[in-house]
Amino acid sequence: MQYQTISQPGALGLEQNKVLRNTYMMLALTMVPTVIGALIGLSSNFSFMAQSPIMAPLLMFAVMMGMLFAVSALRNSVWGIAMLLGFTFVAGIFLGPILQHALNLSNGAQLVGMAAGGTGLIFFSLATIATVTKRDFSFMGKFLFIGLILLIVASLANLFFAIPALSLTISAIAVLLFSAYILYDVSRIINGGETNYVMATMSLYLSIYNIFIHLLSLLMAFSGDRD
After folding, report:
1. Nearest residue to 88 via CA among 217, 212, 177, 225
2. I need a surface site. Which of 31, 45, 46, 68 has the fewest CB within 10 A?
3. ∠52-54-56 over CA atoms, to 5°?
4. How many domains does one find in the chain?
5. What is the tens place of the pLDDT at every residue in 22-70?
6. Contact by Cβ (8 Å): 45, 98
7. φ, ψ dihedrals at 17, nearest 5°
């Protein structure tokens, strides 16, 4: 009886470490199709977005949401991995418009590098905090979900109003919100709240993806050199 009491937590800890390890490996793998997709997006023509400034983003959002549901539905099979990699490839292509806009600036390459470096620094710092402290951040779940819904609503509303100040506010809040999601998601893995590494990878990928986009938007707004 004593052996079972001791060994079960040990076995649980090993399983959680396995999920975390597989998640980080899969997360690193998702960067490959993302970069390939981004290179394709850079050479693609997104002029239709200027012609349909509202419908085009909504269509892109619908495509990504559909693929997210497919990943969730297939998460327990090898097709879930394939769909996840497919999703990250499409997400990379959808980086095309913002990367094209950034690289049209004289210091655009520097800003993209700063956004990528800042995103990496945020991820590794917060993931390390969650891993080392092993603190349970699950209490943040409801607040983060409400914040995410409000952020989506505000983003959709700004498609119609196109207020620059609101765009900057949304980007600043998004960086903070998805940074908090990294703490929350890594904590869930460590504490056994998430045992599927496909879903864990998708959650962390979305946080990294959104932090990069909104951090780049802020850098372009405040440091972009248009001369």
Report:
1. 212
2. 45
3. 60
4. 1
5. 999 999 999 999 999 999 999 888 776 767 677 878 888 899 999 999 9
6. no
7. -65, -35
